[in-house]
Amino acid sequence: MQKFFIALFLLFSLSPAQATEAGWALLRDGGHVVLLRHAMTPGTGEPTNFDIEKCGTQRNLSDRGKQQARKIGALFAARADTTDRVLSSRYCNALETARLAFGDRIVEPFAALDRPAPDGSTLKAQDEAVMQEIRSYSGSGNLILVTHVENITALTGGPSREGEAVIVRPEGEGLHILGRIVFN
Fold first, then answer.
1. Angstrom distance (rounded) from CA 1 to CA 13
2. Which range is the signal sequence, renumbered to this chain (predicted)?
3. E strand or H helix at 21, and its extent?
4. How many other β-carbons are positioned within 10 Å of the β-carbon of residue 48?
5. Helix, strand, or coil here: 49?
6. What is the pLDDT of residues 61-103, one digit of tens each?
7. How many CA atoms lie less than 13 Å away from 76 in the CB half-sphere?
8. 97 Rama sector, left if φ>0, alpha if ψ -120 to 50, beta otherwise
9. Cα distance between residue 12 and residue 14, in whole Å
């Protein structure tokens, strides 16, 4: 138990660069689950004419966001164990982040990772579906879940930056954050 508290203290006392290095150390071992917030997009919220089937009606990645997604993929390829599976929100900014970073062949759209309804009516069911995926994961590589700040906040109790990776494991009814990787 003492080792746990020491590790927890070190995690919270690390600078972002040190926390990022600690995150990469975890992912080199494989078998972890990563909540990845989609890369950079302009503005906030979706346009009023939003249609999940039409990227032209959604906030899409900016040029900087596309570069960020490619950088995420290159760093995962160079610094982490293999990526077994990538599940992504069906929103175009999340799907494009996943495809640019990890390639089209392993990316699977997963509706439970979509932004929750504005009134919050879908959040509980979505969180349960995501938790089921996380709890049932037993691969030797890493599982990446590309989603939105609202989902990450609901699952972990705290927000993340655009393009930030939050490494988690199930603990009790929720998730325990093991580490973070910040992509500038």
1. 19
2. 1-19
3. helix 16-29
4. 6
5. coil
6. 999 999 999 999 999 999 999 899 999 999 999 999 999 999 9
7. 28
8. alpha
9. 6
The position carrying tokens 């972002």 is 16
pTM for this entry: 0.87
Taking a C-beta distance cutoff of 8 angstroms, is the pair 97, 39 a contact?
yes
The topology under which CATH files domain 16-181 is: Rossmann fold (3.40.50)
Contact (Cβ atoms closer than 8 angstroms) between residue 101 and residue 70: yes
- Identity (one letter) of the amino acid at 127? D
Question: Tokens 């930056």, residue?
Answer: 161
Contact 76, 101 (CB under 8 A): yes
Q: Which of 42-46, 48-52, 122-126, 158-162 has the lowest mean pLDDT?
A: 42-46
Task: Copy the structure tokens of residue 102.
Answer: 């990890």
* Residue 77, token pair as written in the block: 């390829």
